[in-house]
Specification:
The structure is a homodimer of 199-residue chains. The first copy, chain A, has 199 residues and is an all-alpha fold. The first copy, chain A, contains nine helices and no strands. Helices cover 72% and strands 0% of the residues of chain A. In chain A, helix 1 packs across helix 2.
Chain lengths: 199, 199
């Protein structure tokens, strides 16, 4: 967490804080991080320019805050849905489905997370490495329970993150066909990782 | 192909043309597309500012030209390596390996291709949709030859592109471990798509 951010305590301050964040998300999505100034954000939020700095020392600190928000939101949503499932098979299916639904409902999320590669490569690296760490933990537990095969779970975590990201991208940007039928997409994925690709 | 680009005919012109492209690739990688001006490019290339416009009408047309170059290069390299292999299994292994090697040798490629999402979303969409089309064709042929199972090859193409992209990214940005042992990474992938994930 960015230590220099001043988290608001009163209800008014919280409203302003949230309005800054919401405006920034819309503008970063529409015009990109580099195409958005602090002035654009305060104008969009309808607040005085100086008010921004009561909460965030810079545009970058606001961006980092949003990145952490998204990351927590993704983890929390997937974890809550996956927790209801028992087997690794069901957990894997629910995990992918939750991620796609979340991406579809928040198309800005994708753009803003990936843009970290063009803002500070270390942010992108941290983001996916910390995501992978949790994924690996879950996979290792499933290996112990003999639910999945004892493959290198570190490599597997990046393989499965890649699938989730590209399938999410396909749905969000409507690449190719089938993008309204998420159950079908998830079924193809499960079929593939259950029975393999080859005859 | 961007029709407004003036392809050079003399050797001197070709040298200048290539120097502009090489300088642009380095600067786009270092400072991003939005952080690079035409002036930066001509300075880096050591040519007069006006010379740029003898070849490219704009920074965007140069970017599009580079994107097409990368796309052709990736396809040509993978196709050449894959052509030597006989079975779909060997083709799939060689395809992933070639892609990772190419990404490792050209770390700018990744950054510049993905940045299209922040330059013009339609470019990104076109890039992956046209890549998918060729992938689907190859997969459909393998289904006909009964080498792979009759899954929805459109969805499968995005799944496998996602894997290649994230594994490539892992190696290029050195995310997590194992990134020097590309044979191992490719083996884990092949094991996964041959035998599936589950026990």
């Amino acid at each position: 967490m960015e230590t220099l951010i001043k988290e608001p305590t009163t209800r008014n301050a919280k409203n302003t804080f949230n309005m800054i964040i919401e405006s920034a998300i819309n503008l970063f999505y529409k015009n990109g991080y580099h195409g958005t100034t602090v002035n654009n954000i305060t104008q969009e939020a309808g607040i005085a320019a100086g008010t921004f700095y009561l909460y965030f020392p810079s545009k970058l600190s606001l961006y980092k805050h949003i990145l952490i928000m998204f990351s927590h939101n993704i983890r929390r949503t997937i974890a809550a849905n996956v927790a209801e499932k028992v087997t690794r098979y069901e957990k894997e299916r629910e995990g992918l489905k939750s991620f796609i639904m979340l991406a579809k409902e928040n198309p800005q999320m994708y753009n803003i997370i990936w843009e970290s590669l063009y803002i500070d490569r270390a942010l992108f690296k941290d983001y996916y490495e910390s995501f992978a760490k949790r994924y690996i933990k879950g996979l290792n537990n499933s290996v112990k329970r003999e639910e999945i095969r004892a493959l290198d779970t570190e490599v597997v975590s990046y393989i499965l993150m890649g699938v989730a990201n590209f399938i999410g991208l396909k749905v969000v940007l409507d690449l190719g066909d089938n993008n309204d039928d998420i159950e079908h997409i998830v079924d193809v994925y499960m079929d593939l990782i259950k029975h393999g690709l080859f005859q």
